[in-house]
Specification:
Helix content is about 30%, strand content about 25%. The protein has about 120 residues and is of the alpha/beta class. It has one domain: Trna Endonuclease, Chain: A, domain 1, CATH 3.40.1350. It starts with 9 loop residues before the first helix and ends with a strand. The strands form 2 sheets. It has a 5-stranded mixed beta sheet. Strands 2-3 form a two-stranded antiparallel ribbon.
Length: about 120
């Protein structure tokens, strides 16, 4: 989810954090109140900052989670997903997308556009 949608979908973000806690994830960092904010990444030469929605650990492995919700800026969202997917591959981590009812088609189309069709969605 991009920064402009953060307030709009804060309830889904909190629901996703609860879901991950129930599944045994630890050291959860989320871009919401009550949790430590995950590490942000800055694009050199511009003012763009990328912050993962949720970062957690399970069985000693770091997992990056992104909420996939309809957005007014799909190009920015695609760039964020590609960056986090590449980052997770470099660091031997996992990158997963969390989505909810009403956003499945949008998510699948976005994944198809950036050739990440192999990603399995977490449906809440």
């Amino acid at each position: 989810m991009i920064y402009t949608d953060k307030k709009k979908y804060s309830d889904i973000l909190n629901e996703s954090v609860s879901y991950l806690e129930q599944r045994g994830y630890e050291n959860i960092k989320a871009d919401t109140d009550g949790y430590e904010t995950p590490k942000s990444f800055n694009k050199k030469g511009s003012d763009i900052t990328i912050t993962p929605d949720i970062v957690a650990e399970k069985e000693g492995r770091k997992h990056y989670f992104e909420l996939s919700l309809k957005s007014d800026k799909p190009r920015l969202l695609k760039s964020k997903w590609l960056f986090l997917n590449t980052l997770s591959a470099l660091k031997s981590s996992k990158f997963r997308l969390i989505t909810t009812k009403g956003h499945y088609k949008f998510t699948n189309e976005m994944l198809s556009d950036i050739n990440l069709n192999d990603k399995k969605l977490i449906k809440i």
